[in-house]
Design goal:
This protein has helices at residues 7-31, 70-81, 98-105, 143-155, 167-173, 219-233, 248-255; strands at residues 38-42, 45-49, 59-60, 87-92, 109-120, 135-137, 179-186, 189-199, 202-210, 238-243, 259-269. The protein is α+β, with helices and mostly antiparallel strands and 270 residues long. The longest helix has 25 residues, at 7-31.
C-alpha cells in the first residue's frame, strides 16, 4: 500500500526527530558530563550543539508547523553564535516555502541532501519466515560493545575507538523513551547494530552500522527485518528511515518496500 506523502506526515516525522534529539543530548550528559551540550527548543523546532564537528549540530523542524518567522531564525543564529558555531538548519522539501526563501535571503548554502523513507506497517509482511537468530535487542551490559560496533562501522574500520570517542554512540544506546538498541552477533562477535525508536504509531530506524569484516552477510537486512517486526508488535503503523541518496542503505530499504517521502537539505550560514 502507498502512503499519502503529505506535509502533515512530514511534520510528524520531522517532529519525531526534533523530539528525540534532546533525549540524546540528555543521555550524552550522563555518559560524558564534561562534553559540550546545549539545546534550544522553540515553535516545534529543536536546535542542538554538541561541540565542533558534532553530527547532530543543526536545527530540526524549521517550517514544519507553518510559515517561518524571522525571529525564529534570529534565535537559531544567536544560539549557534553563542557557541562560536555556524548556524545550521535542516529543511524538508515539504516544509513551508518560507523556510527556503528566508534562509536563502540570509545567505545559507546547501551542505548535503538526505532522503527520508516511509513504510506502511499495516500492510507490510516479512519476506523471511522467521527472525534471524543473529539479531536481538541489546542488553544494558552490551552498551560498550554496541557503541564500538556503531563507531567502527561508520568509520569503516574493524578497530573501534575508546573513551570520549564513544560518548555519542553510548548516548544513542541510552536515549530512553521508546528506543531499543538492537545488536547482531556473528560467531559471538558484535558485528552490526542499529536503533529502533517508537513514538506513538511511528517507528524510526537509525544508526545501522556493520563492521567491515562482517559486511555482505545479510546483517543489515536482518537488522531491518527484526526492527520492523518489533515495531509492528508495538502497534506502530508507519516505519521511517533516512539514507544518503543512492547509497547501499537506500537499496536495502527500497527492497523492503519503503517509499521516498521527501528529501531534506542541510543548510549552513557562514
Amino acid at each position: 500500500m502507498t502512503l499519502a506523502l503529505t506535509r502533515e506526515l512530514a511534520a510528524r516525522l520531522e517532529g519525531g526527530m526534533a523530539a528525540a534529539n534532546p533525549r540524546i543530548m540528555a543521555a550524552l550528559q550522563e555518559v560524558a558530563p564534561d562534553h559540550p551540550g546545549a539545546v534550544l527548543t522553540r515553535s516545534g523546532m529543536t536546535a542542538v550543539y554538541g561541540g565542533d564537528g558534532f553530527p547532530l549540530n543543526e536545527a530540526v523542524g524549521v517550517g514544519m508547523m507553518g510559515p517561518v518567522a524571522p525571529d525564529l531564525l534570529d534565535a537559531i543564529e544567536a544560539f549557534y553564535a553563542g557557541h562560536h558555531h555556524a548556524s545550521a538548519i535542516r529543511v524538508s522539501s515539504l516544509a513551508h516555502p518560507t523556510a527556503v526563501s528566508l534562509t536563502a535571503a540570509r545567505g545559507y548554502h546547501l551542505v548535503e541532501f538526505s532522503h527520508r523513507w516511509v513504510l506502511d506497517l499495516k500492510t507490510w509482511r516479512p519476506a523471511r519466515e522467521a527472525l534471524d537468530p543473529r539479531v536481538r535487542a541489546a542488553e544494558p551490559p552490551e552498551e560498550l560493545e554496541w557503541a564500538e560496533t556503531m563507531e567502527a562501522g561508520f568509520a569503516d574500520t574493524d578497530s573501534a575507538p575508546a573513551g570520549e570517542a564513544l560518548a555519542l554512540s553510548r548516548a544513542f544506546f541510552r536515549m530512553g523513551g521508546g528506543a531499543v538498541p538492537v545488536i547482531a552477533r556473528e560467531a559471538g562477535v558484535a558485528a552490526a547494530c542499529g536503533m529502533l525508536d517508537v513514538d506513538g504509531e511511528v517507528a524510526a530506524l537509525f544508526s545501522g552500522s556493520t563492521r567491515p569484516a562482517y559486511r555482505r552477510r545479510g546483517l543489515q537486512s536482518a537488522l531491518l527485518d527484526t526492527r520492523l517486526r518489533m515495531a509492528q508488535a508495538r502497534g506502530c503503523t508507519i516505519a521511517t528511515i533516512e539514507t544518503d541518496p543512492g547509497s547501499g542503505s537506500q537499496r536495502n530499504v527500497e527492497r523492503l518496500g519503503f517509499q521516498l517521502a521527501y528529501a531534506a537539505a542541510s543548510l549552513r550560514r557562514p
